[in-house]
Design a protein that fits this description.
about 25% helix, about 160 residues, globular, alpha+beta, eight-stranded antiparallel β-sheet
């Protein structure tokens, strides 16, 4: 990281940045290129380990690519604010972001799906008690990203 003073290393503060983000972009490998998809997400953190959860349809390009390669990268950002100055070079941009990589799999049981779906609801609907019908559980696919490496950078007030 070029600007070391903007690096966030404290795990709790990194989670704080992730919590403020409302979209996570996931990059799948697609024959030499990245196929980047913006997705809603939830997360779980335990003992400095991070797991991200996503939901999607039961078929499509993401799942086709996942069958070929289970390694992905991700990025999420937030706190965007342009800060002006008297000259163009005095402008700056406030932001916070996380990025990393890991192994992504499909949740293969209803119990694992529920963990992921509840994490998604906890992220977006903070005080909601999430319940899901059996019909919905059967129709949705939940992706589980076990993060192996991630970093955080911020230029906030």
């Amino acid at each position: 990281m070029r600007l070391k003073e903007r690096e966030v290393k404290d795990f709790g503060k990194m989670l704080g940045v992730l919590e403020k983000c409302d979209c996570c972009r996931v990059g799948f490998y697609d024959d030499g290129y990245a196929y980047i998809v913006p997705m809603n997400f939830g997360y779980a953190a335990k003992e400095n380990a991070l797991t991200l959860y996503f939901h999607c349809a039961s078929e499509g390009k993401k799942l086709d690519l996942l069958k070929k390669c289970d390694k992905v990268s991700f990025e999420a950002d937030c706190s965007h604010e342009l800060v002006g100055g008297p000259r163009a070079c005095d402008y700056t941009f406030r932001y916070a972001s996380v990025m990393g990589k890991g192994k992504i799999t499909v949740a293969d049981t209803d119990e694992k799906k529920l963990i992921g779906l509840k994490a998604l609801m906890a992220h977006y609907a903070k005080n909601m008690s999430a319940t899901f019908s059996e019909k919905y559980l059967k129709s949705v696919t939940v992706l589980v990203l076990e993060v192996t490496e991630w970093s955080c950078k911020a230029n906030e007030k």
